[in-house]
Specification:
The protein is mostly beta strands and 212 residues long. It has one domain (7-211). Helix content is 6%, strand content 51%. It contains two helices and 14 strands. Strands 4, 5, 6, 8, 11, 13 and 14 form a seven-stranded antiparallel β-sheet that branches. Strands 1-7-12-9-10 form a five-stranded antiparallel β-sheet, with no helix packed on it. The longest helix has 9 residues, at 7-15.
Length: 212
């Protein structure tokens, strides 16, 4: 599909909130890593057919948690409330008896477009608890970018293991998307999207299993 900036891309992003794939999170045996959505909140957390998103799942290689969002995008020159949006995701992660895991990195795929002087920024933090930040991912986009996909990754700053003997823990991912339209009165167009349906965007937390 050809993506036109703002008009077509915004319409597709809004309509795309109903097109996420089904989650396979509930089918993990007790001897494997598992994940489910415990809670979400924020202006960028949409729902699809009454179900909360994003949809988390264990990656096919069993080495990560994939997170796919619906309707998560910042855009301008629509009303200012859409220029900065956030989605805070609390995941329930289960793991085998006698094992633990670390979150070793984060990986991102998204879509961005900035006209003239407009800019955009993604800021994400993931952690086990408020006092245990594991990593921060910050990506800034300059002006005059045509509509395009982008990807990036960041190694975790703290390789803190999940609690041994617990068999489950929560991992929280806080993500904020912001667009800056540039100087008034000639505010320029911009979009930053993590919307899966239209832009095949997602975030992924790399997982490494360890013995206790």
């Amino acid at each position: 599909m050809k993506k036109t900036f703002i008009g077509g891309a915004l319409a597709a992003a809004l309509l795309g909130t109903a097109a996420l794939p089904a989650s396979s999170a509930a089918a993990s045996p007790a001897d494997e890593l598992g994940v489910s959505l415990k809670r979400n909140f924020g202006s960028g957390c949409a729902e699809t057919d009454g179900n909360k998103t994003p949809l988390p799942a264990i990656t096919d290689d069993k080495k990560g948690i994939s997170i796919k969002y619906a309707g998560f995008f910042a855009v301008t020159p629509v009303p200012a409330g859409q220029r900065s949006v956030s989605c805070n995701v609390i995941l329930e992660v289960t793991y085998p008896q006698g094992k633990t895991f670390i979150v070793k990195d984060s990986r991102w795929i998204g879509y961005v477009a900035t006209h003239a002087r407009a800019k955009a920024e993604l800021n994400a933090t993931y952690y086990f608890g408020p006092d245990q930040p594991l990593g921060i991912y910050l990506k800034r986009f300059g002006s005059s970018l045509p509509g395009q996909s982008w990807n990036g990754s960041q190694v975790a700053t703290e390789l803190t293991p999940a609690p041994c003997g617990s068999r489950s823990t929560t991992v929280t991912l806080r993500t904020t998307l912001t667009v800056d339209p540039g100087a008034q009165p000639t505010e320029d167009k911009a979009m930053l999207s993590l919307n899966y349906a239209e832009h095949k965007a997602s975030s992924e937390l790399g997982i490494e299993m360890r013995n206790c």
